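Methods: example folding runs. The two proteins below were folded one after another, and each record is reproduced exactly as written to the output file, sequence line first and structure-token line second.
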Amino acid sequence: MEWVGEWFGRARINYLHPQKSLNIKEKDGKSRTLAEICKSTVPPCYLNPLLFNGHAQTMWTAAKAHGPPLHYKRRIFEADHEEFNGSYVVDFAVTDPVLIKEHEADETLPPRTAYFSEKELDNMGSDDERPMLVILHGLSGGSHEIYLRYALAPLIESGKWEACVVISRGCANSKITTGLLYNARATWDVRQTVKWLKKTYPNRPLFGLGFSLGGCILTNYLGEEGSATPLKAAVVVGNPWALNISAKMLQKTFIGHHIYLKVLGDAMKALASRHKDELDKYTNIDTDNLLNLKYLYEFDRAYQCATWGYPTEEAYYRDASSSDSLLAVRIPFLAINALDDPIASSMALPEAEARHNPWVVLCTTSLGGHLGWFEPNGGRWHGKPISNFLNHMAFEVDLDSIDNGVNVKRTSGVPESGTNFDPMRRKMHVNLNK
């Protein structure tokens, strides 16, 4: 455990990892541990002292409406999973001058976004070796989110990276063709996207980045895939980890209950309202009641339980949490959380799990709120460690030399007693390959 002092907006930074962190060979022939790489790529955290706590940092996101003007083109995918069929979309970051002007984007989509043309879709694919980043956004968000663009912009503007954002079903003006939206265990769309990218761009090293609920989904995906994932490294930011703990902590305080849970509930109600026709057609949910609910946990009770078969929202939260999934991650993995995050509670941090897995480093800052990290100059600190770490992994590391844990069992227990622990054994069974 290592601490840096805190004063007037300077946040303390702490790292949690095993004593024997993953050993990684770099292109210059030297070897460094994952922990050493993370500590060298995470810069000091100097934040705006006027935004002096997690609430101020979190709420300032709503007040600060601008960010790097990234542009996207959207592709519609038909899901290949037998049970979780329907369509979903992926937004690809582009530098195409056609999309530079706001009025040339599609007005039915988020800002600076348009659909690929049929010709462009037919010509997708290449043999280039440019690193490609696969991003998962937060609850009810999309590729347009400011926190996401602050992290992605430095990579795209460098001219060295490609990137895409997997849009959770129904989000960011996407359409659904079934009664399914998404939840924290909904890993099949990112799985299909990663497989498609690997086939379409066979020489591109793939990396992952997840924010908030998207960080939970990405961690769950990596736990399910283990050493089989094509991703080379990943970063998750503001992951709520143990959803049941974060939910309880929110309900315990007035501001958590009546502001955050209401705002999050309103966001999900707005999402359901946009897709009311599909929900009425494909589910037995009482949508009139659904749209009159107030808090996020009420929405989860009425929608997630009815759609996915959980008896209570607490059962869903426990089953969809990603704390145990962290034990099964088998690629270099950097997690970043703020200890004063009022939504992803520090009480839910998987500290013991981070100390157990050599592929993992958990970095915490004492300040920052939920996906805030506002600096005095108006920038966002979290974009710096993200781009530093990913650039180092993509361009400085010998990726082929990384031990991905193929020969390492992801279970634990007492074999002589016949006991066994599988971190990915869920209570709700999902056939991922069906």
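Second run, written to the same file directly after the first:
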Amino acid sequence: MERNVSSPLILTFFSTQLPLNTTADINATVKPFSVFDGCDHQVEGIYFDLTLQCINIVVGIPANLLVIAILIHNRKEPTTSDIFLGCLAFMDAYFSAMTPVSFLNLHHWQSKAVWSAIKFSYGVKDTSGPLFLSCICLDRFVAVLFPIMFGQLKHIKYRLNLSMLVFCLTFAYSGAKVVGGLPNFEKVFTGEILAAFTWMAVCNVCILRALKKSRGAGKNEMHPMKQKAFKMVLSILYIIVFNYLPPVVLFPFEDYYSPDVFRCYVQPVGFAFLNISSTIQPLVYLSRLEKVPFLSDTCVKKCCTCVSAENNKTPPIHDPPA
């Protein structure tokens, strides 16, 4: 299963150049170029994916840059998950910025080198999002269920090391995706997304249950700090269900679809939900803030209608410094 193989952003397969002295009897016939890669008459799923990627350009890039600016602005009072949030926002902004390049390469350049860079960005999106969200879930999981251990592991060096590990895994996967030709490589993403989805879902459910049980006897309201953690974990749970559940449900059943249906409909639609997370993730983060720096309250209310009035009444509460 190759990522977005049916998207119009995906050019036809480039054959590796053979040595001039080869003696093998090889059919050198090259398939005619098609921007739809065999899906010329089944373009609905492709256009669905493209529409969501256009939203990433208009909304996702500014939202992710704003998240990075806010994290830098709040660097004196950081939360332990800020480094993961910043890396995730940076990767999402990078992926969103590659969409115009894809359009230009599709309709103008048609360059193999540019296509390799675009394919690398798809590998980054495939890997960095699930892994960094998993890191955020791990951070919250330890903080809520093992507070003593969390206090011992609160130093930023642990999160820096974990972030470097994620970057190494991301670049290794993306590089292998660009090289191509690896046997059963398409199953790597299926295994990764299934493992990440399972971990994040189980982790968040455990956190939510623990936070609900932590209310004092006879008290109906949760401690403000725990209430903030509850809302953060709940928002992550919404993200993983909306953005990651479709590919988790669809991709393992590849053999039940005909090759054309899977390539032209199932894959583009499944990845479209994954791609739009580059917009949803920063918007969810911004909607949880009591006050958004650099923006007026009127602008915030217009852009983030999901911000509740109750949040505006609650005084800002920060996690302990990392």
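Comment on the second run: The chain has eleven helices and no strands.
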